[in-house]
Amino acid sequence: MRVRRTAWASAGLLLAVAVGCTGGGDEGAPEATPASAPATTEKPRATSSPTPSPADPVSLPALMRREHTGSGLRLGAVLDRTSAYTRYAVTYEANGLTVSGIMNIPGGEGPFPALVLAHGYIDPDDYFSGQGMPREQDRLARSGYVVLHTDYRNHARSDKDPDNDVNLRLGYTEDVIGAALALRDSGRPEIDGDRLGLFGRSMGGGVVYNTLVVAPGLFDAAVAYAPVSARPQENIDHFQRPDGDPLVAEIEEKHGTPEEDPDFWRGVSPLTYADRVSEPLLIQHGTADDTCPLAWSREVSATFEEAGKDVELRTVDGEGHTFGPRWAAEMDVTEAFFARHLR
Q: Which of 79, 100, 181, 309 sits most deeply, having the most CB atoms within 10 A of its CB?
């Protein structure tokens, strides 16, 4: 059993004392969708960046300061039984909100390492619980992982947060952190809370970036594929402004434009805090992605590398946003990455 994550909450508080995404990836048609290592000491934390707009409650520094909670993981109805795993409806608590999702639990002897899945953008009015990454949910459970796919706040049976959209959907980051904490402290014999990975696609890739800078050390490794930009203003300009989304005016009225308040916009970009990241990160991005430009992932990779972080950008020749012919091969890469770091 590892010991480093048992001290995460107190270490996070110390970091908070020390320091004083929007956008939508189309989910696309295909997705409409080992034994524990010896105990180790807690891995070193990255040094925190200067914090612009320290009093702004809508910022990554504000999330860094927060004492996050996640608990009350409850298995509800059985949704499916396969030869390899059982699929459940679940809920958990994240910073005072109840968040719904689905969980696949492998058959056989546990405890199993666990993965939190962060899905891409789907209109909450159309979303149903567990939607977004069904191929990954199935395959990873068959490979011996407990899979918790979070619905996020405002989705499916989760509690409502009426300010989440105008606040750049930073609440999704809280929901993912809460999922990890709920897994870690569930007490369920099937779940090894000391072996946790994070896997997000499209908008969920942006949630991965935010989580790594807000809660370094909470996960053991993270994967983002076909991720959105790590600069929220680029996601707004790319996805929302061209469609005349009225939310853009609300966001700019509340927070100002990047020209009017550059400090605010730096404070909501994980690139500003790349030096905080402590987990290895794998980014997978198709060269033919016409939803999320590959250049966005190149910038994240270069920024994290410059900060001395363990990041790998894997470009997938000819693949679009949803990954088609190369999906299975890239999942081989994903699973090998998690196997190396969740052992």
A: 181
Distance CA 211, CA 176 (A): 7
- Please say whether the beta carbons of 181 and 272 come within 8 A: no
Residue 24 burial by Cβ neighbours in a 10 Å radius (0-12, 13-18, 19+): buried
Which distant-in-sequence residues (6+ apart) come within 8 Å of 225 by Cβ?
A: 200, 201, 205, 283, 284, 285, 323, 330, 334
Q: What is the pTM of this model?
A: 0.87
For the chain, the domain total comes to 1
* pLDDT tens profile 302-319: 999 999 999 999 999 999
CATH of residue 88: 3.40.50.1820
- CA 285 to chain centroid: 16
CA gap 131, 151 in Å, rounded: 8
Beta bridge mates, 103: 88, 148
Sequence-distant (≥ 6) Cβ neighbours of residue 159 within 8 angstroms = 97, 98, 99, 153
Per-residue pLDDT tens for 135-167?
A: 999 999 999 999 999 999 999 999 999 999 999
- Closest C-alpha to 152, from 66, 216, 94: 94
Token pair for residue 14?
Answer: 């110390």
